[in-house]
Amino acid sequence: MKKLLIANWKMKPRTAREAVKLAKASDVRDVLIAPPYAFLPIVKNALKKATLGAQDFFYEDPKQGGAFTSAVSVSMVKSLGVKFTIIGHSERRAYFSETDEQVTKKILLAYENGILPVLCVGESQSVRQRGIMEAKAFVALQIAKDLSRVPQQAKKIVIAYEPIWAIGTGNNDTPENAADMARHIKSVVAKNNHGLNVAVLYGGSVNSKNITAFAKENDINGFLVGGASTDVKEWKAIMAIVKKA
Ligand code: 13P
Description:
The protein is built from 10 helices and 8 strands. It is α/β, with parallel strands linked by helices. It has a single domain (about 5-245), classed as Aldolase class I (TIM Barrel, Alpha-Beta Barrel), CATH 3.20.20.70. An 8-stranded parallel β-barrel has the order 1-2-3-4-5-6-7-8, surrounded by 4 helices. Strand 3 (about 50-55), helix 3 (about 75-80) and strand 4 (about 85) form a beta-alpha-beta unit. Helix 7 runs parallel beside helix 8 (about 175-190). 1,3-dihydroxyacetonephosphate (13P) binds near residues 162 and 203.
């Protein structure tokens, strides 16, 4: 099965010029790219083949805009041609105090606007230290809360399993554990949101050296890549490996 490959540039690169360079180097069919808001228009202009996404949007979308200084609405990103959005990344939950309630609102807004939601879930180090069953229970609860307002007519969701302890640490989960969690996530969605088609991605210190082993796991449907997606050499190697998988 074909694997999904999503680049989460997070708060990189530093300048517009570098963003255009990175976009051009990443412009491959079937690859999905989520640059920072500030670079969305220039990246859109630089891309011919890759799919443009957002890293987030605000959880309110008043029809006439609104008084929410610095916030970016779903209508704004939609008008720039964004096709998917990352929602509920652990960095948003940690540094911006994002709640499950806000995540549910964003998922609903994504569906209402025809944007594919890429929901991020994953446990902390302290939860994982209590064992894999604890981690599975944590992830199941997160999914139950975050998908509690998915509309009946919604057909597809992408869920990225990103254990917090594996993000940006060089300490990736094992492909076997990640595949086990992917099966768990699929069974939770099948139970709670019957009929919703789910693709499960793995994210957390994915690089060109470890991705081949993850790609062999049939239950892992793709990858959400942070750091390595902003390093042109690494990203090109990753794109080549995923293309062949
Ligand atoms: P890294 O690939 O840098 O560990 O980040 C993963 C991530 O958070 C992608 O959303």
